[in-house]
Amino acid sequence: MAQKKVSGGIMVKDDLIIELQPNIFRLKGEDTSSHSYLIRGDYKNILIDSGVDKNFSKLQKSLLTLGLKIRDIDIIINTHEHFDHIGANRYFQDYSLIAAHRFAATKITVEDRYVTMYKSGDLNEPSLRVHLWLESKSQFDLGNYSLNIIHTPGHTSGSICIYEPVRKILFTGDTVFAGGTLSYIGESGSVGDYIDSISHLATRKINELYPGHGKISKSPEEDMQKAILNARALLRDEGEVEITDFRDVPK
Ligand SMILES: [Zn+2]
């Protein structure tokens, strides 16, 4: 596969790492794992979602390719409380600040596995920690980028989207996917909240969506409208709604 030069003059040779914007990278999650997004800031490095435990060595390799060790990640922001987004937090939490919406933080820190479905399979599993409890309008200033937190309950109660206002890009976790397909509405989620959250998001100018799974979206308006229609159809029990449930992706 051809090599590509990314910011910092680093050569990247596979599709596990894609530079979406200058110094914003998608690090691909394999199988059930969510993608991770790295924002290499002027002041701090942020990783959005850490993926599942067993994807960690791939994540670590991708970070090393970009010249970053685990301890170079200053902050991890979890888009929500599901295992496939928080699973590798345990490898970062001694060095990085872990940030999540307060409704996600409560479930992660009390080990509410009914909602998070988190299990590392490790007998000496350390407790997961959340150091920064976020609310709507929390903001991270990285110099070259700023990240605004928007609480978007629906998929789960602690789901957030992260908006970058200069590039007008939105990191959506499991809230909006390319094509507007729905994710499973989790135990703490609500279809009504979901419709409300997306209607609220749709009032912003957004150029691209960066979801937790699958492809990025270059048609955010269309995809958000489709997601709302799909959610309404789900409420009417129409049975034709396409739901992408990443819990069931084969290993
Ligand atoms: Zn999820």
What do these coordinates show?
- α1 links the parallel β6 (45-48) and β7.
- The chain has 251 residues and is an alpha/beta fold.
- The protein has a seven-stranded mixed beta sheet with strand order 3-4-5-6-7-8-9. Strands 10-11-12-13-15 form a five-stranded mixed beta sheet, with no helix packed on it.
- It has one domain: Ribonuclease Z/Hydroxyacylglutathione hydrolase-like (Metallo-beta-lactamase, Chain A), CATH 3.60.15.10.
- The protein has helices at 56-65, 83-86, 102-109, 113-116, 191-201, 220-235, and strands at residues 4-6, 10-12, 17-21, 24-27, 36-40, 45-48, 75-77, 97-101, 132-134, 139-141, 146-151, 160-164, 169-173, 182-183, 208-211, 243-244.
- The structure holds zinc ion.
- Zinc ion binds next to loops.
Number of helices: 6
| First-residue to last-residue Cα separation | 25 Å
CATH architecture, by name, is: 4-Layer Sandwich
* CATH superfamily descriptor: Ribonuclease Z/Hydroxyacylglutathione hydrolase-like
Quote the beta fraction.
Answer: 15-25%
Shape: globular
Work out the radius of gyration. Answer: 17 Å
Instruction: Report the sheet with the most strands, covering strand number, pairing sense and barrel closure.
Output: 7 strands, mixed
What is the structure about, briefly put?
The protein has 251 residues and is an alpha/beta fold.
